[in-house]
Amino acid sequence: MKTPFVTLEQLQEIVRDYPTPFHLYDETGIRENARALYRAFAWNPGFQEHFAVKATPNPQILKLLREEGCGVDCSSLTELMMSQRCGFAGDEIMFSSNDTPAEEFALAAQLGATINLDDITHIDFLQKTIGYIPKKISCRYNPGGAFTLGESEEGFQVMDNPGDAKYGLTRPQMTEAFRRLKELGAEEFGIHAFLASNTLSNDYYPALAAILFKLAVELKEETGVHITFINLSGGVGVPYRPEQSANDIAVIGEGVRRAFEEILVPAGMGDVAIHTELGRFMLAPYGHLVTRALHQKHIHKEYIGVDACAANLMRPAIYGAYHHITVMGKETAPCDHKYDVTGSLCENCDKFAVDRMLPEIQVGDLLVIHDTGAHGHAMGYQYNGRLRSAEVLLCQDGSTRLIRRAETPEDYFATAIWD
Predict the structure, then answer these.
(1) Is the pLDDT of residue 226 over 70?
(2) Which of 60, 69, 78, 7 is nearest to 37 (CA)?
(3) CA distances to 21, 57, 377, 390, 416 from 411, in Å
(4) Where in the chain do CATH 2.40.37.10 domains reside?
(5) What does the pLDDT average to over 220-227?
(6) Three-state secondary structure string covering 328-355
(7) Of the candidates 57, 66, 180, the residue with the CA atom closest to the CA atom of residue 124
């Protein structure tokens, strides 16, 4: 069973100040989760989390995470600019992009960010762009083929296809790239890889770590470079469905530690720092999309129309992704009504739920759509003239703070040229 982090009574107070729909974030949950992550990897003195800005690009969220020791992972010019304005600099910033414009490499270098190269041709492109190769540099590895972990304790099979992904360097290219970068003056090297998305398995990170640790030992032997960090990137998932079990970050951290001590320490590489780039894991469970039922429709199916739409949360529309829904005040009522919960876009895919069993919903009921703290507001858009909603932070003391205002029609028209 999924329980909202806010009560009906709290929500009724909040909606007096902020009209629905809006995204609501739980400061307490965010901070506690960040602290749990750092405890899980406390065995590694150089551990650093670089929060994936793309997941929740809100300055107040980024500043909150910075207070908890997190850095940022950026993949565009504007993400770099936002991070700079939030006070991040130097090693706090990882810049991992692909098909990268020159101006983005230039700003990353100016900020002292650690640049993670996505392709071997980017070595010469980077040198031509900024005039040098940074002393500290990273390369993204793509092993190709398929990545399969098998059944986890949760009964979930981890499987993805790196060979179909546009990212990263091949194994031979990694050796060639490190040799070339060393010739050009690089002194500290990092390895990065991302093999699977939203894994519900405590075994994924340790398995990925073992692959990268073995690669690091091989590259050190082949090229003689000093590998100072290994970035396990993201992929640690969250249970969107109530029957799914959550990952245990303490168990994950211990699994990575065992691989570290079995592979890197005997190779004389016990000084390697572990980095992560978690977005979904850090934020998704701590965000709700709050919406209100506007209409009931009785035709071939039963529909509940709400005042949010795919412009506020596009994952169900484009991925068919499941997001749990709580009808506030009816948490313990029987789920004996079957509904499609829909938005107002002129597209039939604009549905938050299809054939979902829920308590009986009345017009005016408040609904909470769960796990929208990452890739929720961030993926918003203005199709059909629908405007992006506000973002609100539920503070630790129970108060609320507006951290992004809702868009207005004037925002929508601001870039139009009328004459």
Answers:
(1) yes
(2) 69
(3) 17, 18, 16, 13, 10
(4) 285-413
(5) 97
(6) CCCCCCCCCEEEEEECCCCCCCCEEEEE
(7) 180
Q: What is the CATH number of domain 41-278?
A: 3.20.20.10
The mean per-residue pLDDT over the stretch 99-103 comes to 96
The amino acid sitting at 411 is: D
Cβ atoms within 10 Å of 132's Cβ, excluding its own? 12
pLDDT at 197: 86
Q: What is the pLDDT of residues 363-409, one digit of tens each?
A: 999 999 999 999 999 999 999 999 999 999 999 999 999 999 999 99
DSSP-derived secondary structure letter, 86: T
- Integer Cα distance of 92 and 115 in angstroms: 11
The CA distance from 57 to 61, in Å, is 8
CATH H-level superfamily of 285-413: Lyase, Ornithine Decarboxylase; Chain A, domain 1 (2.40.37.10)
346 flagged as catalytic: yes
Give a three-class secondary structure readout of 17-64: HCCCCEEEEEHHHHHHHHHHHHHHCCCCCCCEEEEEHHHCCCHHHHHH
**What pLDDT, on a 0 to 100 scale, did the predictor assign at position 158?**
47
Model pTM score: 0.94
The interaxial angle of helices 171-183 and 204-223, nearest 10 deg, is 50
Residues of CATH 3.20.20.10 domain(s) within the chain? 41-278
Reported as a pLDDT band with limits 50, 70 and 90, residue 156 is: very low
> Residue 358 is encoded by which pair of tokens?
């829920």
Mean pLDDT on 179-184: 98
Residues near 321 by beta carbon (within 8 Å), at least 6 away in sequence = 240, 315
Tokens of residue 233, six digits? 């990137």
Give bridge partners of residue 297 from the DSSP assignment.
303
Which pair of tokens denotes residue 208? 């990925």
- Indicate which residue of 70, 86, 309, 346 is catalytic: 346
- Identify which of 388, 391, 387 has the alpha carbon closest to the alpha carbon of residue 403: 391
243-287 pLDDT per residue, tens:
999 999 999 999 999 999 999 999 999 999 999 999 999 999 999
State the first-to-last Cα distance of the chain, in angstroms, to the nearest integer: 55
Q: What is the DSSP letter of 248?
A: -
